Amino acid sequence: MKNWLNRLKTRPDAPDASTQPAPAAPSLDPADAGIDAAWYGWLTASAATEVPDDLMQRILDQVRTLARDPAASAQLVPRVPEVVPQLLRSLGDEDASSSELARQVAQDVVLVAEVIREANSAYYRPITPVKNAEAAIVMLGQNGLRMLLARIAFRPIVNMQAEGFAKRAAPRIWDQSVKCALAASLMAPGLTAGVFESYLAGLMQNVGLMVALRLADRTHPGSVPADPEFGAALLAASREISAGIAAHWEFPPDVAAAIARAGNPGDAVLAQALAQGDRIAKLRMLMDAHLIGEDDPMVADGLTSFQRRCLGKLENVET
Fold it and tell me: Which pLDDT score, from 0 to 100, does residue 23 have?
């Protein structure tokens, strides 16, 4: 496994990306545009206000400018715990035993608790409670452990210290990130996309949204524009930020590309997995907020039977 996660920090010798043009915002499928509009409206409802056009344009200009400078964007998010990349390197070694992985996990008491909690979650449903790290690692398997470690690494990145609306929105954005990652990983096999890469793309996609909301807070403290067209433009620009940071952090190139193309995935299988996971996760959150039901056309007509089963699996996901 590549040690890309060891580079979840800015590097002084990184190339200057500020001169690189930002990719054009993709055009969303009308169904996804409707889901995005509903989700943005729900996410921002507590702070949405009418904002003059010139102020909305100023916010979007600032976000798009930052999207052209991944190094500056990466400076606005925290670094990953050191034990996580160490463990991910070990997970790339197929000869690494569960006892060796357990020894490394044991270096961090918080990580021990997370691994055991995950193994006992409703997703894995063990017959008898798992009580130690080695048994938990056996239960999770290599891919399950990699996903858990990635989630632990991303939690402080999305739940970054922020103020104003960005701080209030962070738990909901993190919830959507985890649900999107899991849904994307479930969609991946049917699309011949990488399961772990799909999970990473799902976790990474909203990092740029947190950065964008922090910028919006500085320009218009405590509230955000209610305009749905602004919301669509902000979500598109924030994906550009996420893709740029992913490339700057030296994620696998297909992960960064999938984030950039998620709004219009075309034939790119990883982008398709991410787009489908994002759609399912947002619908799950809208359903949990009692804004739509299972008979809503976005669910009943917009999802395949397998996607609806995935939607059900997200109901009790712990984030």
Answer: 36
